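Lecture 7 notes. Example A: sequence first, then its structure tokens.
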Amino acid sequence: MDRTVRRIAAVALAGALALVSLPAPSAASPARPFPAAHLTLEALVAATKAVTWSVDDEAKIVTATVRLTLATSCTSATMQAMALVGPAMAARCRVDAAAAKAIADNITSVWNNNNRYRCYLLQVVVDVIIDNTPADRRPPTGDDRVVVQIDQTSANITSVVMGTTNSGSTWDGNTPNDRLTPVNGSVPPTTWSYPPASWKRSLYAHEAAHVMGLNDTYETYVDPADGKTYSRPKAGAPDDALSNIEKTNVDQKTVDRLVERADAFKGSKPKCDYKIDTIISWYHFTSTKCGGPEGDWVIDVEGTYPLGGGSLALSGTGHALLTRNAQTAKDKSFAGPWNAAFRIDLEGVPYSIGGQEGTITGDAKLAKSVLHLVGKNAQGEFWAQTPALALGGPSMDPMKSFDLPVTNGSFCP
């Protein structure tokens, strides 16, 4: 069985591209010219708005919304012929809700699998509508959706996304110039087979990657032993859904390439770092958390409280171990346990020393640029000593709660 993964064809005819103001494909892109009869502005449209990106810096989610029109591949004549055969064959000329759901589910099951760009969770939303207008009567399509003809009449056809690339782009480039742009109205059109063969576990996720701007990362070769054509990842390409549609994983390199080609952050840096630098009462809290909100926040505290002849000197370190779960995701927060150890010394008083030390445990929650530290349990000891007397014992309850303002940005190397 030939299990070659699907190729992506590029718009190649320079005259046609000039008519629709599309850039010419790179020399490395496979070319597929169009018949002159179809070279019109209405027939050939770059679907530049079919994929839109949004970034939620607070929730740390980057979202791609993919808009697809799943259309029948049958012409009027084919529909009439299939209807004469019987209802089962006629149904192959209609895309139903079950097929649309199966295609969308395959896309999201592969891409929405805890894939991350830096500290941001990648989320792919598939916006699907169905159009069962005969292919020869379907009106021209704009640039806000990719029309995908669903072929249910042939067995194991080659699924393809038609698109154009920029001059100088490469299959493994991560810049916006390397991005592939899908094209509507091409001949042949973007077409996906349905249902897929059982081994094509990521077929629609693979094809959706082309819609989102990625190239194939496989190459074909002929095995001299049996003379058949097979595929394998290109040199330097990861073994994932882009190079092998039997795979359902997406490599980190592929995720990075997708987001960076799309310029999802519009030239700015992801806000994956956090700083705390605030004074509450006479406590000075400082912290720098790199690489995202999840993980161990190390929070230092110090301060000096004047007593008029002496002072209290505070020092301590705390840890807040933040994670995201189903509950915190609802309010875009991160939460976890909090603990700290501190010491307060009496300084500058002649002939005497004194102080206090203790520990605090409780809960921490990062929400809306504030780190809430809520103390629940505490233990402490005090001590005092003069030339004549030494005392020690349990201190008053040192438990406190604090709301620490947090600045989110790019602070770490």
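Example B, a different protein, same format:
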Amino acid sequence: MKLNPTSTSRPADFKVQYEWQAGSVPPPFHDEYTIRLGPDPSGEIIYSPDYPNHNPPVWRETFPFSEDDLTHLFGLIVEKRVLTRQWLPAKRRRVGGSQEWLDVTAEGTRVSIPSELEEQDAQAMRPVYDRIRALVPQDLWKSLEARRQTYQEGYVQRR
């Protein structure tokens, strides 16, 4: 990668796509979402309140954040060596539980962080994932959770 691993100067094409999926639970208690950030200071969350094969609604919402937020996220990604570390999947796969993974683009290069990581790599990624989720406004999270609750209640009534 051309990127200087110690540089905190955010490339113009910097963007991330974070994916999260709940663990295996019976419908309608599964949920999953994608958060896209960059390259400009706008984000998108795509939220599904159930397994895709159940044809649930998919809610797309956009939200703003600051250039400083995006620069800070890039600095954290550099600090945690996300763009320069060799990401290998965990040797032992776990059963159940939620999954999360990340794709980062910077200076024309895309780096993918797998969902199953060795413990030390998973710990290194925790602050990055936490920061990405924190960029989604709390009011938006509350709105999505309320819609999810309504979906679950309707699911029970339909059965």
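Note on Example B: The beta strands are 15-21, 32-37, 42-48, 59-64, 99-106, 109-113. The radius of gyration is 17 Å.
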